[in-house]
Amino acid sequence: MRTNDELVQAEERPTEPVRPRMTRTRLGIFVATSVVYLAIVVGVLTTSWPVRFDWQVMLFRPYKQWPEIHTFLDYFVVLGQRGPTAVAVAAWLGWRTYKLGTLRPLLVLGTSLLLLNATVGAAKIGMGRLGPHYATSIGSNEMFAGGDIFPSGHTANAVVTWGVLAYLATTPRTRRVASVIAALLALGVGMTTVYLGTHWMSDVTLGWTAGLLVLLALPWFEAPMARAEVWLLALWRRVRERGALVPVPVAPVPVAAPRAPADDEQPAREPVGVGSRTGVREGRP
Fold first, then answer.
1. How many helices (H) and strands (E) in the chain?
2. Which strand (E) or helix (H) includes residue 186?
3. Is 160 a member of any domain?
4. How far is residue 138's CA from residue 142's CA, in Å, rounded to a whole number?
5. Which domain holds residue 118?
6. pTM for this model (two decimals)
7. Per residue in 36-71, pLDDT tens?
8. How many domains is the chain partitioned into structurally?
């Protein structure tokens, strides 16, 4: 039926992706998370209770309390490492880009990783905190000592990389499930770094808040990403048009006609006989 054909065509046609907006609720959560971020930084700078708790956890040495899970967690923490996770998520989003016919999934991933590198990287270098294994004085905050572990990059990367999948989910149910999975992965990666002794507890909490701030800020970049998508698609079309091979008309090559067998023979001569005009002489008188 015609109605069924129209339904099939409507299902196969890629739908326009829904771009989240910066709502009041999201903006309120962003402001509250920013306050928590600043509170953690101030607490560490002033060597208050976050630093005391850091040292209590560090001296407890979780990796010595439960050594049987050390090997497993050495592999599990890779889920927060930027290289492997970015490649895995980019592969999935590349397939989604092909199916949906839009560059938005890859643009969202690239924008989020760029924001993560700019914000978390600047904080790491600027505050220069040393990790637990390199601490020099018990009870100190180890700030501005040439380190690069505050906030935790593994934790922030886990929040952003896996959180992007929830951000790009197309249905509310998928978004809820992906959000829970991303939260559990980020929680597990953060606590694993504390267990291994590579980060203070305050590094992890600041990494969680830093990653969440990146995800909450993404709606502000939806309009630039939309313009970038239009520009990239137009550029790709121009490249394809220039690279396309233009057929050049070729003049036909004349083909010699086959020689007939009679052409090789001698020309036939007319026989001389009675009635011939050329071979009959005049009779005598």
1. 11, 0
2. helix 172-196
3. yes
4. 9
5. 24-233
6. 0.77
7. 999 999 999 999 999 999 999 999 999 999 999 999
8. 1
